[in-house]
Structures are given as structure tokens and as C-alpha cells.
Amino acid sequence: MSAEKTPGISAIDTTNFARQIVLDFEFAPVPKQRQRRGLRNEIIEVGAVKLDYHGNVMGEFSQFVQTEYTEGVAYPVRELTGISAVDTAMAGPLYVVIKRLSDWIGRYSAQVVCWSGADRRQLLTECQAKHIDPAAFPTDWADLQTFYTSIMDVGSHGCVSLSDAATWFGIEFDESTGHAHSALADARVTAKLLKQVMDGDYRVSPRAQEIRQRWGGDGRASPDAPFQEVPRARRPAAEAEGGGEVGRCI
Predict the structure, then answer these.
(1) What's residue 176's pLDDT?
(2) Angle at 10 between CA 6 and CA 13, to 5 degrees
(3) Which of 137, 180, 191, 242 could form a disulfide with 22 if both were Cys (CB 3.0 to 4.6 A apart)?
(4) Is 50 helix (H, G, I), strand (E, B) or coil?
(5) What do you get for the CA distance between the two ends of the chain, in Å?
(6) Over the stretch 117-130, which tens digit does the pLDDT of each residue have?
(7) What are the C-alpha distances in Å from 233 to residues 4, 18, 39, 134, 150?
(8) Taking residues 203-212, what's their average pLDDT?
């Protein structure tokens, strides 16, 4: 699977890592007058799903993040995510949440999988602006959006959105998180799409036709078109350590 041509972004690797950490951030814009070192947004919520080498869910992580430069949560962000100013005001700062996330990931070798490279860029930019050392965090990241954009052959449409990919494959957003587009809800959907890659099993939904029609129906991927063969994941050597850590951090 080809990797996005962005420094630090690798191909999806379900062989050499004992865990896949599906990660999603929600952001809030930083006012122009308060922007520092290129920091235009701040992370306000972190959601993650931990998968083993079979793609089984081993645990979930979800925490709000206290902002430093952003005051409150802008209305469009609040409407989309359901996150309020009270949620962020009562949360821990980014360095505390990242430490908790690193502890939750644990000692297993892990690859971080996100929907687009924006999450990695945001984390590195924000850590630099806030003088946070991310050394304890996994350094290998994969971009699942690039892979699905490739196999869905979207042509001039550009990158496939998470919601379009979910609709194409009949995956519903889980609103038990309290909101359909919370960081954890998005991470859950991304994890299900990653599971398809790990299994090499793609079941296209009849609703894929809705996406194709919205894209214009001009020769882009047909819902019935075959996808490239994807190898199933093999058990990584690191898993020989054994032990499972089923858990949930909310």
C-alpha cells in the first residue's frame, strides 16, 4: 500500500506492529491575534481505538483537552462536535492528555492510523508551540484516507471524506458517544475501515451509488467495481509477548 508523500507518514503496516492505534482529533480555531508558531488550531478532543493484529478492538480512549490560546468553542465547531466551552475548561491541558494517551497505548509496538495526515501535523505543530516533548508517543503514522482515495478511484473529486467512505461501505456513525462527529465516533468509523484493510474484505453498500451520483457519475468508481486485492494481516513477532489489555478510558 503506497504511503502519502508526506514526511513521517508511512504505509499502513499490519504486520510489523502489535497494535494499531486509530486516532482522531477535534480542533478549534485560534484567533489570529493569538496564533503562535503557525498554530492556527488547537486540539479540543482526543479519541482513539486500539486494535490488535486481527483488527479486534482492545480498548478506547476519549478525553477533552483544555485550550491555551482559544477562548471557548466556536459555534460551528460546537454544532459539529457537540463540544462546549465547559468541556474544554474542565479538561486537562494537552501535555497531560498526551501523557495519558501514551500510557494507555502501553508498551506494545504501535502504529498510529489517522484519516488524513492533518492529525499528525496538528499534533507536531501544537507540541512545538506549547513546548511539549512528544518523544514517548509512537513515531510511525499511517494515512488511511490516502489508501481509500486510491481504491475508490475518485478521479478529479479529490480526497475521499470519512463520511463518504463510511457511506460507501455501509458503516454507520455510532452516536452513543453523544454526537455523531465526536473524536471517538470518528475513530470508531476509521477503525472499521481499517479492519476492512486488515481482512481484505470490502462489502460495498447500495448507498455507494449516492456518493457516485454526487460526484457526477463521470467515470469514477462504480459501486460494483472490484477493488485491488489487499493481503490479510499476519501476526507480528512482537505479539509473542502475549497479554491482552481490554479496557476503556473515557
Answers:
(1) 63
(2) 160
(3) 191
(4) strand
(5) 33
(6) 999 999 999 999 99
(7) 20, 11, 37, 28, 19
(8) 87
Please state, as a whole number, how many other Cβ atoms lie within 10 Å of the Cβ of residue 89. Answer: 13
Which amino acid, 59?
Answer: G
Please tell me whether the overall predicted TM-score, pTM, comes out greater than 0.90 for this model: no
* Length in residues, the chain: 250
CA 238, 10, 190, 114 torsion-angle sign: positive
Q: Pairing between strand 92-93 and 57-66? A: parallel
- pLDDT category at 177 given cuts 50, 70, 90 is low
Helix ranges, 36-92 (H): 75-81, 85-89
What pLDDT band is residue 150 in, cutting at 50, 70 and 90?
A: confident
The angle formed by the CA atoms of residues 163, 169 and 174, to the nearest 5 degrees, is 55
